[in-house]
Amino acid sequence: MERQYHDNLIVSSAPHMVSPVDTTKVMGTVLLALAPAFLVGIYQFGYRAAVMTIVCIIACVAFEWLFNAALKRKQTVSDLSAALTGVLIAFNVPSSLPYWMAVIGCFVAIVIVKQVFGGIGQNLVNPAVTARIVLFISFATEMTTWPIPRGAGAVDATTGPTPLGILSEGGGKLPSNLDMFLGNIGGCIGEVSALALLIGGIFLIWTKVISPIIPVCFLGTVFVLALIIPGQDPIFHLCAGGLMLGAFFCATDYVTSPIMPMGKVIFGIGCGIFTILIRVYGSYPEGVSFAILLMNILTPHIDNFCISRAYKKGGGK
Amino acid sequence: MSQQKKHLQSIRVSHEKHTAECETQVMPIPDTVCISMSQHIGAPCKPLVKKGDYVKVGQPIGDTDAFVSAPIHSSVSGTVTGVEMIRSVAGGEDQAIVIETDKKQEAWEEIKPPTVENREDFVKAVRASGAVGLGGAAFPTHIKYNPQNLDEVDTLIVNGAECEPFITSDHRLMLENTQDIIDGAVLVMEQLGLSKGYIGIEENKPDAIALLDKMLAEQNHPEIKTVTLRARYPQGAERVLVYEITGKTMDAGVLPAQLGVILSNVTTIAFIGQYFKTGMPLISKRITVDGSAVADPKNILVPIGTRIADIVAFCGGYKAEPKKILMGGPMMGRAIYSDRVPLVKNNNAILAFAGPQSIVAEETGCINCGRCHKACPFKLLPTAFAEAYDNKDAERLNALQVNQCMECGSCAYVCPAKRPLGFINKLSKALVKEEASK
After folding, report:
1. Which percentage of chain A shows pLDDT scores above 90?
2. Taking CB atoms and an 8 Å cutoff, what residues of chain A touch B429?
3. Is B368 close to A17, i.e. CB distance below 8 A?
4. B412 vs A18: CB contact, 8 Å cut-off?
5. Does the pLDDT value for residue A49 go beyond 50?
6. Between residues 38 and 77 of chain A, which touch chain B (CB distance below 8 Å)?
């Protein structure tokens, strides 16, 4: 009996089986985790919150696609990371911001911060956080004009201050901690509801997309420092500004945070210290973005420090 | 002991144990077999027969004087039609003896149970049996059973952890050859003077654990205990198993004997048990045949030297054009270039894939998520290896302890960017070795 042989089989290195989780699924899960905050944003600030988010997604994806096409690189828009950056930028601006300004933020995030450094995985700092800072410095008035949220009840004005603005500059009554927790306060589209962000963050930890170390150390440090510094309310600080959004969704960005657990501890504590220092002693009312940016820059050094400690002779266990 | 609180990092992989209920079938003798002279770690054997010789079942046809080696026996009766060079699955060339079978399966006259009076006899008999590590490593068993520090060794660990997806041959062995396992373990412990015996089995094989527990109790062997392990990957890796059962950390390059342990695969132990009863050397192997391209997946007992194509033909043939065929499991098995290669002693599965499972996933950029680091049983940092390897920095690789890597492939399995981290680890280790020899 003459046997037919198959002589052209695929030869590759083990393992020959890979987990179904890929980058697209990871990014998709993070997008899903942002859904509660998105819904609260639409409820509080109306249709403009939704349009802003869509504009930012389209702008980020388009910039990434165009950049890749111009440089004849492999297209990476399907990994959803550009879409995620778009959502995070929208969440980090007031809903009243002119769209073209938000698009400039998207350009900064995708082209300047991410693509010129080599695309996904190569950026040194978080694109969305950097875009927020660039917008904040470039368009100070528009970026600090806050529409009144629907949940704040009927008021005559169309804009009002954020709680951190009141704390920093006075000029109003601080909202209750419950309103702050639920999101009945002025602020950026995606940052107002601590509850919605907490739900998303816990979902990410539960699905093991992020490690709890950075958010716990970040929030914990803010809480403890606010407890120690006289005249500060720790609960207020946890719920105010971009802390929840930053702690769960920006500081945990894989690319720009340390890989080793000990590095994550250092990173989280560092973010917390800088946030409180800027909020309480700095001239800006909010410090989360600056804190994350500073720690992003320190990340390679934190990683090197932790790696050389962990893999000393006999280490690594 | 089974209630270890601390575990090494491990990962969940899809078990895919489709053939767990498939009782082992004996495959009929094929028309020809091709028996490789390189079936163990160490020096290859030299052929003892030449073209035209008539050989019988169990007759030695290859051996060598080299220390790290084990003899090779004919699995069939028939006429040697040639001693050829064949392309090995590793890419090199091996000598192989091709035998045209007469299907009479006449046993060699000198087959008889070995007589053992002392430990030296025992080790000699183990060598003569052709036994090698049948879990996959193929390290000659007689060397393992003759450690220099035997007086410090008190524990036998039998590895019944079959953590590779798809493979169920060890599971079937534990259900079908339970007595051989007990006999083998008792014999090895007696001959080597070991006081404690553990059979480590994962919790996804409760029937095997129950059967062994029952028979060990009936036959009054309190010195041997089963240990229920977590059904995670890579539970069956030597260094992981030693840690899970004894709590002792085993670094790369350390022999189990240095930690007071002799560790053998359950198939090896069962074979030893059988051999001392019958005297028939290692000539056949129980394997799992499965995968999306195989028509009728099953567990079969195959003569060593049977070509993969013949094995698949017995399992209903290919139901789809095979694109990738693995010797061993999908996590650590080797992709073979052709199905004309023959079965060797340490194979425990043939998996043939047609569809998406045969395609190598496209690599995307590393997002520094750290899943590889979290998956590694030894908490190594594969992303850092990859960076150092790109820079051809052997010193950095050494500092990162790349040699602790046992190539289990967990890092590459979990990587969302589908980077070939397992492959990079192998290349990195080779680079370190190369630099060290300069």
Report:
1. 76
2. none
3. no
4. yes
5. yes
6. 76
Predicted pLDDT of residue A314: 46
Judge whether B324 and B353 are in contact, CB under 8 Å. Answer: yes
**Has residue B377 got a pLDDT over 70?**
yes
Alpha-carbon B161 to chain mean position: 11
A310: contact with B, CB 8 A cutoff? yes
pLDDT in tens, B206-247: 999 999 999 999 999 999 999 999 999 999 899 999 999 998
Contact of B35 with B75, CB cutoff 8 Å: yes
The predicted pLDDT at position B7 comes to 87
Point out the residue among B333, B340, B384 whose CB comes nearest to the CB of A14: B333
Strands A159-160 and B72-73: unpaired
Query: In chain B, which residues have their Cβ closer than 8 Å to the Cβ of A120?
Result: 364-365, 367
ipTM: 0.90
Where are the strands (E) in B51-195, listed by range? 54-55, 60-63, 72-73, 78-87, 93-101, 155-160
For A27, A78, A80, B358, B370, the CA distances from A24, given in Å and listed in that order, are: 5, 7, 6, 21, 16
Tell me the three state secondary structure of residue B263: strand
* Residue A14 to residue B415, Cβ atoms within 8 A: no
Q: What is the pLDDT of residue B355?
A: 82
CATH number of B119-278: 3.40.50.11540
Tell me which long-range contacts B100-103 makes (C-beta under 8 A, separation of at least 24).
B100/B31, B100/B32, B101/B29, B101/B30, B101/B31, B101/B32, B101/B33, B101/B76, B101/B77, B102/B77, B102/B78, B103/B29, B103/B77, B103/B78
Is pTM beyond 0.80? Reply is: yes
Shortest distance, CA A186 to any CA of chain B (angstroms): 34
Helical residues (DSSP H) of B161-234, grouped into ranges: 169-176, 178-192, 206-218
Measured from the Cβ of residue B244, the count of other Cβ atoms closer than 10 Å reads: 25
**Can you give the residue ranges of every domain in chain B?**
119-278, 371-436
Return the percentage of chain B with pLDDT > 70, whole number. 99
Yes or no, beta carbons of B365 and A3 under 8 Å apart: no
Query: How far is Cα B156 from Cα B294, in angstroms, rounded to an integer?
Result: 37
3-state DSSP helix/strand/coil % of chain A, to nearest 5:
60, 0, 35
Asked whether the predicted pLDDT for residue A48 surpasses 80, the reply is yes
Q: Decide if A296 contacts A266 (C-beta within 8 A).
A: no
Q: What secondary structure, in 3-state letters, does B26-38 show?
A: ECCCCCEEEEECC
Using CB atoms, pick whichever of A4, A15, A23 lies closest to residue B331.
A15
In b/e form, how buried is each residue of A156-189, taking b as 16+ CB within 10 angstroms?
A: eeeebbbbbbbbbeeeeebbebebbbbbbbbbbb
CB < 8 Å to A118, chain B: 365
One-letter amino acid for residue A72 of the chain: K
B322 contacts A14? CB cut-off 8 A: no
- How distant is the alpha carbon of residue A120 from its chain centre? 16
The amino acid occupying position A200 is G
Class of domain A23-309: mainly alpha
Domain parsing of chain A, residue ranges: 23-309
C-alpha span between B316 and B57 (Å, rounded): 27
**Partner-chain contact A122 B365, CB within 8 Å:** yes
